[in-house]
Amino acid sequence: MTDILDRTQPYRVKAPDGRVRLLVKDAKEGLPASFALMGTLAKHKVAVRLGGGCKGMSAEDKTQMINFFREAFRGFQGLIWSGATRQVKEGQVDPMVTDVPGIIAQENPGCVALGTLPRTSMLSLQDDSRFVLDNYGTVVNPDTYGVLIVQNGADGKSDWDGDVNDYFTLMQNWRDHAGFTALGVCAWNGGDITKAEIVRSANLGWPTFVVRGSGRACDEIIGLIENGKTDTISGLKDSKTLVIVDKNNPADLKNQMMMRGFFPQVLPS
Amino acid sequence: MDSFAEFHVPSLYIQNKGEKSTNVALRLTRASHRYIIRFTGGCANMEECDAQGLYELFEDSFAYFSGAMLFGGTRMLKISNPKKVIPGVTEIVARLKKICPNSVSLGVIPRTQELKLTDYGLCVATEPDKDCFTVVHPEQDICLVVQISPDHVASWDAEAEECAEIINNLRVFAQWQSLLISYNGGGVTEREIVNTAKRGWPVLLIEGSGRKTDEYARNKKFLEENPCVHVAQKNPDSIRDKLYELGAIERPRIKIVGKNASTA
Fold this sequence. Notes:
The complex is a heterodimer of chains A (about 270) and B (about 260). With about 270 residues, chain A is α/β, with parallel strands linked by helices. Chain A has 7 helices and 13 strands. Chain A has a domain at about 15-190. An 8-stranded parallel sheet of chain A has the order 1-10-6-3-2-11-12-13, sandwiched between helices. In chain A, strands 5-4-9 form a 3-stranded antiparallel sheet, with no helix packed on it. In chain A, helix 2 packs parallel to helix 7 (about 250-260). Chain A is globular, with a radius of gyration of 17 Å. Chain B has a single domain, classed as Rossmann fold (3-Layer(aba) Sandwich), CATH 3.40.50. Helices cover about 30% and strands about 25% of the residues of chain B. In chain B, the strands form 2 sheets. An 8-stranded parallel sheet of chain B has the order 1-10-6-3-2-11-12-13, with helices on both faces. A 5-stranded antiparallel sheet of chain B has the order 5-4-9-8-7, with no helix packed on it. The interface of A and B includes residues 30, 32, 38 and 178 of A.
């Protein structure tokens, strides 16, 4: 599979119409209608949130991660979204889970890529007016159609999970009010925040796909499940919707998603 | 609560000035066609002759519409005989909803007086000099009441302003098309026609419906200056042709027999 991500142009905007639509809200405010409406642009009313990180992964692992999701989401025409950031290392894209939605949307007409992110630090313009999110050079992912930045007041700072409540609420709103028929979370690697997202999604009864071999939080949770220690996963009340898939088998993830209605144009095999 | 499902109960939202309801916006997107039609025009002040055949006119024009419909959200009743519904534009949508089951209807009501619960529904305005009072229309999917605040009422223009906001959000953020259909109407309707035309959004004036709509439908200078404003005659064939032309309804691929035979 060819590498679709042009790593040499980390700041080039490839979102539809050559722009990423940015909205900023306070954590205490209601969800903006404008951003919620962007989710309805997807051809199919289904939504998958990608969670996790890429800590401890080699460059090859990251390429494999991107290709895993490309294969699994081939033909996907729903909404896919994540943390909406991009990491840049030595002037090149350092691929993360947050790069996946934009790539899936580029390759699959009808699919829409959105993102939410917490404002963890003061926003700044740097160099040629590059919009930077923190002191590590993190930028808004330029392949994403729309991004909602959640802040804790103009003066405050959020933790990295500052957007989690909003994204869960938004998904529930899409289901309850806009008629979305399938909601789910897919986790790759990740730390404590990812663990909490997996637990929250499973407790809501949503299909929650956890990728075996992706590392850290995902492998830790899978280890506990497989050793019969599900009850030791903090906060987990219901494990019935946890689905383990293998990082070497994207077809399995696709099939599992298909069986749960994320590809409404295709009957489950 | 399940027993409520047996009845048609509109969901009621109340919104203060400056607020936006995400849930209302999302509920409109349940319509299968990304198209919103706003109905505006006459109610209490409409002459009886202008109201003649009003419902049949639209029922015969709108078969297969599956977008969203935005209207005043009210029903007018006679004070002297509350069982008598006064004909008006706000009655059209409830009737269309019955023949367009895949559409979604939203009524927007400015709170211009104190709300009062009556035996005939939630009363939003009383006009004793015209022998009428206005209630929340019982046949709509969603109803949004807009007010400045709990202690401050809004003007009747707030309805058109809120509708324009809703339409703008759908057009800009969800790539919907829109159409304002105007039938009869007075000063508030006039401002809505002019403001919508200024935005460059499509407007369809029903010529022969009376009052301000007719005035603008016959104003050549206005029509020339605003190419987004279209005119249909007061008959189903003319309205339906315009709905096809403006993308509100897809032309049927099969021959239709009966009422709409001439459009097949």
